[in-house]
Amino acid sequence: MKVGIIGAGLIGTKRAEVIYNLKKDKLVSVFDIDFSKSEQLTAKFGGKAVKSKDDIFKDKSIDTVIIATWNNVLAKLCLEAIKNNKNVLCEKPLGINYEEAKKIYSAAKKKGVTLKAGFNHRFHGSVWKAHQLVKSGAIGDLMYMRAVYGHGGRKGYDLEWRRNKKISGGGELLEKGVHLLDLFRWFMGEFKEGVAFCENMFWDRTKLEDNAFCTLRTRDGKVAQMQVSITQWKNKFNIDIFGKKGYVSVEGKGGSYGPEKLVIGRRKELGVKPIEEEFLFDKDTSWEEEWKNFSTAVAKKIEPIGSGYDGMMTNKLVAGLYASSKNRKIINF
């Protein structure tokens, strides 16, 4: 693929580094509203720093665009890329809300281009293995999941763009919640109903939630619970998955979230401690594996894992959970 990147921040730079290291695809151009960031990125990973997004959209040699910007411009940029027949990897969320996600998804389907949402958490080694174990029946029929994704915050966090609703579109439910909701759908399928409490408990400079507590249920009775937070004080990522024959637990994702590991416990008989097996994952390869999957999907014209449809349906869950919290009632999705 010949790739253009719009947004040369942390995530755009990660994407560029992966393209550079894998050496299968080529980075052609990079645009950022801060031209110096484009220059810094291309100096390290190749390509040309351009001064207009149109230099990417109108370049017919570019077939794929990565959109890694603030949430409030994701939809506009995605739609412009699709209009110009580009495949698109849009960093999560797929637009600022469900309505924007629907427009992006519909436009991509109509044009026949490949659309992917940036859900790299599916590709963490521990999460990928957990999915394989669950789908193989290793812990029996799935009953429920619970997850915590918490950030410790930092000085001035309430002044960052993520805490500005006009730019971000929402608080922690939209920021980290989309990752967990996407994983819940991946493991459990679609949800029928849910309830949420989106609360501002500490970072009160804005009214955006700094904690969201959510419970969702499928039509066949499987339940998923989660908390996303920026008052965790010490970063935490944990997912527990319970089946009738055992459980799988994922903890950490490297860096400040601690070592990444998976534990599978197999139940032998009631009242007896399950036999556990532990797997450690020394390196986060999620960005590389996600890009490989996307590149293959584009080449074979198939749906990527963590597709545009997945991004849209996750935003639908977010919209429903915000409505539940606002109206203080269980809602149907």
Automatic annotation (TrEMBL):
Stretches assigned to the GFO/IDH/MocA-like oxidoreductase domain: 129-248
Residue span, Gfo/Idh/MocA-like oxidoreductase N-terminal domain: 1-119
Domain of life, per lineage: Bacteria
Gene3D superfamilies per UniProt: Dihydrodipicolinate Reductase, domain 2 (3.30.360.10), NAD(P)-binding Rossmann-like Domain (3.40.50.720)
Pfam families xrefs: GFO_IDH_MocA (PF01408), GFO_IDH_MocA_C3 (PF22725)
GO molecular-function terms, A-Z: nucleotide binding
UniProt-recorded name of the protein: Oxidoreductase
Protein species of origin: Candidatus Magasanikbacteria bacterium RIFOXYD1_FULL_40_23
Record lineage: Bacteria, Candidatus Magasanikiibacteriota
